[in-house]
Description:
The chain is built from one helix and no strands. It is mostly helical and 101 residues long. The termini are far apart. The longest helix has 99 residues.
Amino acid sequence: MNETIKNRHKSVQDSTTQRHSDADDKLAQLAAKRAKNKGLEDEITKWEDYRNEGSKEHDRIIEQLEYKLAEQNRNTENMVEFILKQIETAKTGKDFFTTVF
């Protein structure tokens, strides 16, 4: 009977050790999942902040760049017109000087 009690005691100890080991594994898995969730929450917060503030700042930057681009296009068109007029004036002047002389 003493041997039976010892075996039963050993069996309970082994079960307890296994439960502790399983619990430690589950706690480690839980900690890993919590860390992953924290990372996801941080990522969500970052994108929400961007949606609320950062995108507005980028919208302003884009608007300024579009204005500068439009201004540059206007300046380019004006320069093309000026050059074409200069060429036309030069042609007219050449014709004038060839007929006079």
